[in-house]
Amino acid sequence: MIRITCDTCGVVRKSGQRDWILGYDLGFDSRETITRSISFFDHWDDSRVLERGMIQFCSPKCQQAYIAANTLKRRAAGKSVSLRRRRSGAA
Ligand SMILES: [Zn+2]
After folding, report:
1. pLDDT category, 73, cuts 50, 70, 90?
2. What is the pLDDT at residue 75?
3. Could you tell me if residue 8 is inside a domain?
4. What is the DSSP string of the chain?
5. Domain count within the chain
6. Residue 51 lies in a domain
7. Could you tell me the pLDDT band of residue 29, with boundaries at 50, 70 and 90?
8. Is residue 26 part of a domain?
9. 74: CA distance to ligand 1 center in Å?
């Protein structure tokens, strides 16, 4: 029996709950670039749950929280890099 939990709040999915949201979050890292792809399916599909990079959410609220958290993290990282560059340029 596979245990499926919400990637945001950690609640366990009961079998037969079809209103959960299924998607994937894939990262491709190379020396120069980090490409990240977050997508969602329009319906739940039990057969795809175990595929690489799959993410599951119990509600649209948890889905939005996940997107917000991951987008903000990337923005914050970009900001700290540019600040560091500005400081070293002034010195
Ligand atoms: Zn949740």
Report:
1. low
2. 58
3. no
4. ----B-TTT-PBPPTT----EEEEEEEEE-SS-EEEEEEE-SS--GGGTTSTTEEEESSHHHHHHHHHHHHHHHHHHHHHHHHHHHHHHH-
5. 1
6. yes
7. confident
8. yes
9. 22
How far away, in angstroms, is 67 Cα from ligand 1 center?
13
Q: What is the mean pLDDT of residues 22-34?
A: 88
Distance 68 CA to ligand 1 centre (A): 14
Residue range(s) defining the domain that contains residue 73: 21-83
Ligand 1 center to 89 CA (angstroms)? 44
Ligand 1 centre to CA of 27 (Å) is 22
Residue 70 lies in a domain: yes
pTM value is 0.71
